[in-house]
């Protein structure tokens, strides 16, 4: 048996894969650390693109990073599996059995993985806050499987509308970046699809965005919220603020004031909570949304050998928003300080967040950005070109960080070439 220190990272999203790649490139390749990345999927995707996969305006074959081959090239191992339990005394995690979805045949039995240090990076999901009917009657957009499922249903619904000449009604709950960007992206998909003259008449798509608060994009300054609202309304997307959903049925949403918003397509993109498994992790402290409570240096409050980063973590003294930027910076922090903690028992210092602002892009229609000091940019005659380019640049930066410069640039070039070969919107 190897006497190398065993680091297990659970979750290969924005934080987990960046961390595994950085540590693998340094300590893993040098044989100083035994790193295993565990994920319940086989490939990594940049989550802020999920709404594009759902609308079909991006094709995720080009945007996936296959864990197993990436791990082999970057000094770590990949283990497919979904964490289901934790035994802190024996330093062991349990991976749930892998079961065939249709006939429930067991493909892989329950397995165990031993660790010397454990990092949780399992992200988050939308939060239905216990609203009746959401689970049964809404589509979620929290992972690539859900995004692909969304796209398939969207294409079928469009086909039906084209064939029958009837409108397609879509209602989205959540006026944050996900809901707002999704509404615009669906409009873009319909507009692009109509260029192919499938039928002489493009069907009407009626999108309603429901937000419980007084304005959409509440984490952005008011001028960005107002600009985004105007842009959505220009696209004939109905934006309803102060619209609190109290229930959902097979026909649509029921609002708190008793009125209804009926729609064939009901999307829940509001709120954030950690995956349910955090509640059964051998007594680790959880925040209200199930996030693992960590000290300012990202170590869990109950166990110094366990850390949590990204959306699934929560620093009580100073909570950070669940964004890609925070997830990446937390991963970089641990990549910098874990080697000394592991090899020389030096404490990990507190994490400091450097807020570089935020960007929101409404398809190719418009975009805005806000700096940390509240100054904004975007909109205007160039329809937010700088913000839209900034949004794309963030994804490319992530790709280059993971692939390395040469392969990262090749991936960008391949995507660009792909645009000459395939339609801009998924049709198959
Ligand atoms: C549609 C959409 C648009 C967004 N747009 C933006 C944006 O424009 N800007 C921005 O900053 N943020 C945006 N976000 C939020 C951003 O994507 C998240 O904050 C970020 O992905 C968090 O990174 P993470 O590493 O914590 O988790 P994730 O990137 O979600 O990764 C979690 C990983 O854990 C794995 N996992 C989960 N549960 C288990 C388990 N039980 N066992 C094993 N593996 C597991 C998952 O498969 C996944 O690979 C958006 C989110 C969505 C859904």
UniProtKB/TrEMBL annotation:
Keywords: FAD, Flavoprotein, Oxidoreductase
InterPro entries: FAD/NAD-bd_sf, FAD/NAD-binding_dom, NADH-Q_oxidoreductase
Annotated EC: 1.6.99.3
CC cofactor: FAD
Keyword Repeat among UniProt keywords: no
GO biological process entries: aerobic electron transport chain
Chain ranges of the FAD/NAD(P)-binding domain: 6-331
Taxonomic superkingdom: Bacteria
GO MF, any single term: NAD(P)H dehydrogenase (quinone) activity
Family named by the database record: Belongs to the NADH dehydrogenase family.
Name of the protein this chain belongs to: NADH dehydrogenase
Organism per entry: Acetobacter senegalensis
